[in-house]
Structure formats: structure tokens, C-alpha cells
Amino acid sequence: MDMPFREPEHFVEVLKENTFTFSDIIASLMSVYPVENLQEYDNILRILGLLDTSGTVRSTAISYKTTDPRGNEILASGLIMRPVERESRGLLFFFPSAKIDKATAGTELMLTFEGVLSYFGYTVIIPDLIGYGVSSSTEYPFLFTENTGQVAYDMHLACAEYFREAGLSFPRKVTIGGYSMGGMGVVALHRHIEKYDKTGIIVEKSYPGGGVYDLGMGMDILSRTRHCTFPFVPYMYVSMDYWYDLGIDYTEVFIDPLLSNMDDWLLCRKYLAHELRQMILPDMTTYMHPDFFTEEKNESIRKVDSCLRFHTVIGEWVPKAPMTIIHTINDDMAPFEIADLMYKTFLKGGGNVSMIKGTADHFSYGLEYYLSMITFLVLN
To answer: Are 180 and 98 in contact (CB under 8 A)?
Structure first.
């Protein structure tokens, strides 16, 4: 069931490598994802304490060739975390959740919580995606479905090439996971493999969690509710402006204090997520232009809005391999209505899909998502 040998087309080089204990990843987690309620971490540690966390993990950062949304070749990077001196229990491909600051990408820290299952015997691939790691000088293509699927797929092939060069086996079967921003990536990669792969990759299962699967629909809902727990919309506007060369007038998009602080808050990418949430509040009327909340909008907002309609994974494809959509009904960042529409559309089209619903908020349910994945995969 190993992938066949192929001459390297994507893998470029190993950037760096290190070995870590489980306490290392916990320390990294608490520094990058601090929470106000420490009880949430206590719950995680209590459950993980029941499992064997004595093993060590080797983290390998690699660079590889892929393409950007304009079709130009670009060098990207990603992380491979695998158990040391233990046989791998299987291959997982985990997309990262939203990282606003560029200094905490997987290959920068060499540790990321998305790779935690490597401590329990799995080989885990975590892409930086374009805009982070070695490609940090460019803008992140925010939820560009086709490109995200392509970039992740190329990372997967690069990992296969690297493993073969190192004399290691690389299985055909892969399980795909990711939460929040990573949720859309899960569907994008699953779709890309089933539509375009000719190398024999087998999607065993996929678990998209808490994602925004249709950006146009997402903006329609958020402009109506005027509330979003995490300020991803401003970053989305910057990304659309950059990749589509829209030349938008930001005085028609944002209001003060965000408008006057764009360079510091949005463009420098130095703030952690929890720091940004203190500056850009959940009430969208405190930073979005009033025209955003109208049907007519204005020229700059209409330019972006027309592009958003291309960013969806709900359409002509349905999953053949099992997909479990995991989403909380009380998500006020990634609206549940979108996940529910995707589920019903896939189901109606004959897709191999199921859904698990939660009731917590977006961030708390993210912790539940990862705990569930750890428990399920470790017990299996």
C-alpha cells in the first residue's frame, strides 16, 4: 500500500529538523494559543494524561514547488511530524487553523498543535500554505479553494518524494483533518485528490471542522448579524485586493480606528490572534464601513463581493470517501448555515457524508474537535 517511487518534482530540500518531547508542544501551545479560561487546557491535559505521552517526535521542515493563485510557480514550506523509534500507525494531513502573525507558522516554531497526534504514533503533515514560512513575503490567499487544494496536494507529493529519498515508506492512505480556517482546506484537498490525482492517493476519511465553506454566503450572513468573534473579514479584504488586483479604496471598506491602523494591525502580521481580538472587536460596525451592511454597498465592497462568489467548495463535486463535517450550531464566526448547506448538498448528490453538531462557541468547540480526533484515532 506504499506510494510508488517517483522522481522528485515538488520536494526541494530539508530546511531544518529537530526532536521534541510532549512537554515541548504543550509549552508551545500555551504560548501561541492562550485562553482566558485555563479550565479548557486543564481538560485537555487531564485527558491526554490518560494516554502514553512518553514518546518523542521528529519535526522536519521542508520546502517544495507549487503554484500561487495566478498560476506562477512559488516555493512553499510545511512541517512533517513523525514518531521517533516507533512504527507509524498511519498518515494524517492536518491543515493549520488561522494564524494571523507570520512568526508562529509551523516551520517557524517547528511545533504546531495540529501535529499533536504524532506523539501518539501517527505521521502528520502540516502545510504552512502560501503566505507563511518560506513564502511569507507574499499575501496569504484567504480561502482560495482551488489554490488551497493544489498547494496542499503538492505538499503531499513533496512529502512522498522526501520519504522515498530518505528510504522510508509512504502510505497511499491518508486521513485529512483541520479546524476553522483549516476546515475549508480539508474539503479542498479531499476534492482535489478525488478529482485530479493520478498517483494512487487514497483518502481514507476526512474531518472538516468549523470552516467557512462558501465565502459569499458567509459575508451575506455576517453583514446581516454584524457580529464575528474573530476579525477575519479585514484580512480577507486585503487578500482579495492583492490577488485579484482590485485596487480598492480602503476608506470605502474600513472605518477608524482600524482604517488609521491598517499598517500596524493588518499588514505587519506581528500580532497573535488573542491580541488582535482585543483591538478589533466582535461588533463589526466598529470597523467595517456602513455600506458593508447595505444591499447596495459601494464600489470597493462590490469589487470584493463579486470575487467572493468564486470561493466555495459547495458545487459540482461530492465526496466519495467518508467525510464527517463537524460544526457547532452556535458558531458566530463560521456560520453553521454554510456547513449545514454543504452537508445537505453533498448528501443530496450521493456523497459519502455525515455530520456531527456541537453547541459550544467556535473556539471552545475547536478544542473539542481536537480532543475528539485524538481520542478516536488513538483508540483505533
So the answer is: yes
DSSP labels for 247-280? ---GGGTB-TTTGGGHIIIIIS--S-HHHHHHHS
Residues of 218-243 as b/e, b for ≥16 C-beta within 10 angstroms? bbebbbeeeebebbbbbbbbbbbbbb
- The pTM assigned to this predicted structure is 0.94
- Residue 41: the pLDDT is 62
Distances in whole angstroms, Cα of residue 53 to Cα of each of 32, 43, 144, 177, 342? 21, 16, 36, 21, 37
- CA 245 → CA 78, 192, 204, 255, 299, distances in Å? 27, 26, 38, 22, 14
Task: Please name the residues in contact with 206: beta carbons below 8 A apart, sequence gap of 6 or more.
Answer: 175, 176, 177, 186, 187, 189, 190, 319, 321, 322, 323, 324
User: Region 176-205: what's the mean pLDDT?
Assistant: 96
Mean pLDDT, rounded, for 332-339: 95
Report how far residue 341's alpha carbon sits from residue 328's, in angstroms, rounded to the nearest whole number: 14
